[in-house]
């Protein structure tokens, strides 16, 4: 992993986080767009509360850096990244609800339903989900309408039935929420619930850059490895992490009786799996040479993060 020092990587990550924050602030402004009738204040305040002033913005960062491999204009990649971040933020709002994970804290602050109420939280999540598809179809993302179509379809599939939403219901089923004793496939749940949006961050860059099939496959393979490493690191943090650093209570998985990579592999086995995934991610993008240095650094960041 040559060419990107930890300090350089941190600066790039922070810069994308700042740029994404500013862009989301504009996208979530009170100004009414054509074909909109109104932007209700309570709804907009709730959407901003759960989208601004927080998070590493890893998913937009992956879009920006995977797109940079192909020389895609940063402004276009940031816009696609903002659409992805809207999906991510909506999912956190809904995951925190009493009917789902029943969380009181997110990023060190009260979760949205605690700050407001369940109905406002549900509708704020719905608003962010819908806004994402407004953003991803905008002309500014790419002059070729077919590229915008491919980006939109991929986002829907990564976020929906066969991706994040499907993974969430499998996760709840694994907790015994719906009765019965369904088999738990932790790897499948991870690929869908957590991994799908991270993978989208990588393939979105390939789509924006109109990559060859080989190049697309390299970023797809990288995204899958990074997504699994992210989830295992998350499982390890739930066992070993500090609640103050996490910004939410630790030990929630054990409290809810969840089957995780850690419960299946053990702590040392999970750490070894992360090392294997790092090697796989590194190898996948090696075809890009020095252009892959930031992506390789991103995989290491995901594996070694503390929150």
TrEMBL record:
CDD domains: Trans_IPPS_HT (cd00685). It comes from Bradyrhizobium niftali. It comes from the Bacteria. GO terms for biological process: terpenoid biosynthetic process. Its cofactor is Mg(2+). This is Probable farnesyl diphosphate synthase. GO terms for cellular component: cytoplasm. GO terms for molecular function: metal ion binding; prenyltransferase activity. Keywords: Isoprene biosynthesis, Magnesium, Metal-binding, Transferase. The lineage of its organism: Bacteria, Pseudomonadati, Pseudomonadota, Alphaproteobacteria, Hyphomicrobiales. Belongs to the FPP/GGPP synthase family. Coiled coil: none annotated. InterPro entries: Isoprenoid_synthase_dom_sf, Polyprenyl_synt, Polyprenyl_synt_CS, Prenyl_diphosphate_synthase.
């Amino acid at each position: 992993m040559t060419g990107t020092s930890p300090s350089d990587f941190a600066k790039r990550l922070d810069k994308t986080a700042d740029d994404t924050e500013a862009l989301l602030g504009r996208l979530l402004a009170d100004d009414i767009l054509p074909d909109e009738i109104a932007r209700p204040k309570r709804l907009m305040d709730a959407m901003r509360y759960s989208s601004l002033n927080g998070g590493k913005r890893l998913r937009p960062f992956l879009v920006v850096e995977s797109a940079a491999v192909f020389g895609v204009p940063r402004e276009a990649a940031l816009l696609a990244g903002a659409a992805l971040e809207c999906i991510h933020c909506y999912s956190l709002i809904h995951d925190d609800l009493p009917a789902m994970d029943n969380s009181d804290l997110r990023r060190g602050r009260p979760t949205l339903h605690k700050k407001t109420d369940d109905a406002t939280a549900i509708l704020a999540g719905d608003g962010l989900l819908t806004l994402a598809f407004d953003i991803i179809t905008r002309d500014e993302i790419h002059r070729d309408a077919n590229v915008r179509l491919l980006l939109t379809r991929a986002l829907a599939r990564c976020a929906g039935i066969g991706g994040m939403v499907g993974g969430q219901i499998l996760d709840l089923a694994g907790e015994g929420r719906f009765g019965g004793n369904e088999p738990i496939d932790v790897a499948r749940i991870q690929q869908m619930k957590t991994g799908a949006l991270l993978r989208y961050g990588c393939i979105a860059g390939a789509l924006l850059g109109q990559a060859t099939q080989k190049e697309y496959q390299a970023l797809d393979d990288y995204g899958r490895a990074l997504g699994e490493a992210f989830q295992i690191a998350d499982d390890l943090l739930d066992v070993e992490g500090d609640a103050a650093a996490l910004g939410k209570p630790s030990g929630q998985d054990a409290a809810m009786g969840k089957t995780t990579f850690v419960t299946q592999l053990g702590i040392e086995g999970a750490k070894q799996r992360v090392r294997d995934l790092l090697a796989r991610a590194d190898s996948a993008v090696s075809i890009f040479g020095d252009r892959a240095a930031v992506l390789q650094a991103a995989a290491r960041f995901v594996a070694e993060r503390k929150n």
